[in-house]
Specification:
The protein is mainly alpha-helical. Residues 171-176 have low confidence and may be disordered. Helix content is 66%, strand content 6%. The protein contains seven helices and two strands. It is elongated, with a radius of gyration of 24 Å. The chain has helices spanning 2-17, 24-29, 34-61, 72-81, 87-96, 100-140, 170-174, and strands at residues 153-157, 163-167. It folds into two domains: 2-140, no CATH class; 144-176, no CATH class.
Length: 176
């Protein structure tokens, strides 16, 4: 129940509480007028580029480092996820566009931009989750049932040419 309330009910409540009403005319104007199109692109692309570039530059030119357990693809997926933040975008749109018709187009653009960012982020995060799930399965695999996951054992050739397993780990081969 929690994902439904956090992922659907809370955003819908925030939209209704903010007074967002979108008409079919407002939705139709989003991709034909430059202002609403700019809002959509700003939420989807602007936030993604800004957050990802800021994180990359911080990791590149300061002492900050990306956690070794994360990949840059994870940072990118979370940067895309930032595009779902619509409350400040609605506030800025309301302050910047005093004409009610233009404000309606901007509200529709914020809604479409947030939904687009959420959809793309969900796909990226689902893909990354599959990758991490496969890594965990490989790390916990113990095909020889000796109680030690196979990834922490390395193959060693003995004097007789037979392969045996020795303690080690995935990190011992990567540190070179």
């Amino acid at each position: 129940m929690r994902p439904v309330s956090a992922g659907v009910a809370v955003p819908l409540f925030a939209l209704f509480a903010a007074g967002v009403s979108v008409s079919s005319d407002g939705l139709g104007q989003v991709f034909t007028r430059p202002e609403p199109l700019g809002v959509v692109l700003g939420l989807v692309l602007g936030k993604t580029v800004g957050i990802f570039a800021g994180t990359f530059l911080a990791a590149r030119f300061t002492r900050a480092r990306l956690n070794p357990e994360l990949a840059w693809a994870d940072v990118f997926a979370l940067a895309v996820l930032a595009g779902i933040g619509f409350t400040v975008a609605l506030l800025i749109g309301e302050l910047a566009f005093t004409d009610p018709a233009a404000a309606e187009h901007i509200k529709a653009a914020v809604l479409i931009g947030s939904l687009t960012a959420a959809t793309v982020a969900a796909l990226l995060i689902k893909r990354r989750n599959g990758i991490y799930r496969r890594l965990v399965e490989a790390e916990n695999r113990d095909e020889d049932a000796d109680g030690i996951p196979d990834v922490y054992q390395r193959a060693v050739l003995g004097d007789d040419g037979a392969e045996t397993r020795a303690a080690g780990g995935p990190s011992s081969s990567r540190r070179q």
